[in-house]
Amino acid sequence: MSPVALAVSEALPVPAATESVDLQRLQDELEEVAQQAAQARAQGLGLDRAVRDPRLPALVSFHRDLRDALFVEIDEPMVGWIGELRDGVGDSPGKLQRFADALANTARGEDASARSRALAELLVFEAVRLRLCVAMWSSEDYERSGGHDDDIDAVAWAEVEAILADPQLGQHGVRPLQVMFAAACVSLFRGANARIDELRRSSQDVHDQLGVRARLRAALRELRLPEAVLLENALSNLLGEDRLELEALQAAHPLALDGMSRQAMDQRVSRGRRALGAGPGHWPRRRRPALFDLLRDRDDDDDRDHDDG
Predict the structure, then answer these.
(1) 27 within 8 A of 1, measured Cβ to Cβ
(2) Where do the structural domains in the chain lie, given as residue ranges?
(3) What pLDDT digit, counting tens, does each position of 27-78 carry?
């Protein structure tokens, strides 16, 4: 078994590890993900492209499931653990930081096996990518400028790959994931500014279309995960995306739709359409916070602290 796969399972917080996660199954799935990540890297394929390559189904599913996991409603023990991380309370923040540093070291280390190194690269990439997603999705601005999730993936991988190759990464006191996130943010904002300049020469129809898509995607992120996934697919024509048959959609999003009948999915789509049209007060919102809510709140607090300073 890959040491990284074992370390990931052992790093889970106690509430998750004891109540809802089959650790052996997790380790087995990570082994398959590690194998496909190593295959992609051996072929010279960047991880931002590999996670969308249908020839690598375990990577595709892992990437998509992590995104969906941001919007899964979580129980109070997990909320408390995440609060400790956010506030720097207890031992958890230090343990997580050491784990993140160890992942970065494995990702750039020559002593690790190809599978361990590829899995570590993937986990570092996904960590940076998810934090970027939270930052970009916390308002409509990124998508109003024409920004897309593919751009986030490409920038995240470019910065991860570049910084892992930087010899200064090994210096004492350097926090690799923080450096990668900061560099990726700069790159994304630079790209957004370039698109804004181009949009000044675009027609009002283009601006209106981007505005509609941004508002709709922002609204979907406020909904319960099943409704968000179903309605995103049902309204794919407005979002400029391909529409999937419900069976394929269910297979692609097990965290959202596993075990749901065709009739139940149809009913949720119908009710969800009406609710969206009736206004925010009628939306099928989450009853408990999701990880996205907690991380977004933390970023908002950090912005306020920066402004106050």
Answers:
(1) yes
(2) 3-199, 219-308
(3) 888 899 999 999 999 999 999 999 999 999 999 999 999 999 999 999 888 8
